Amino acid sequence: METYQLDQVEIRVLGALIEKQALTPDAYPITLNALLGACNQLTSREPVMQLAEADLAQALDSLIQRKLVAERLPAGSRVAKYEHRLPYEWNIDGARQAALAILALRGAQTAAEIRTRSGRLYGFRDVDEVETALNALADKYPPLTMKLERQPGEREARWIHLLGEAPAVADLPGTAPDESALHIRIATLEQQLAELVERVGRLEALQASINSR
Fold it and tell me: In this structure, are 149 and 203 located in the same domain?
């Protein structure tokens, strides 16, 4: 199983594509210009980015190679359009897809914050439904999300996505360095283990094929 070592631009692209699929279904898949605008949006984004077309094109090429994004050329159109393929590659949709998109677009948040900020992206009934979606993402192998330890003075624990390099402790205000660093390190090791297991499986299959000849 492939690990999710995406860079910040690739993560922003996936989050923006999920969002636009839900908010503007009639205009989805979307053009490069529309995607650029969504990635550079000043609201509901953390951090705010100022990407150039070249940055976006490079990220799209990488995501297409990973089969996480597809390029479409509608009949009669000269302009390519783009869509994500997460239901096929990661087997996620609905609540799980929405929760992951909000984390990808806005950083570490509590389940209550995700519900409040979901807007038209997905109609979460309550915080429990958000927690269910986040736990389902965390249970994937490798995990897509991780719950941080609740810190003193905080009412709820926050969640982060694990699509790319784990964020530095300094980027997570109020998080205890020792605990968060340990959890992040464990998640990273789990991802590396999954890659090694996949490689060993391929080698064993190859050896079995050679031995049967």
Answer: yes
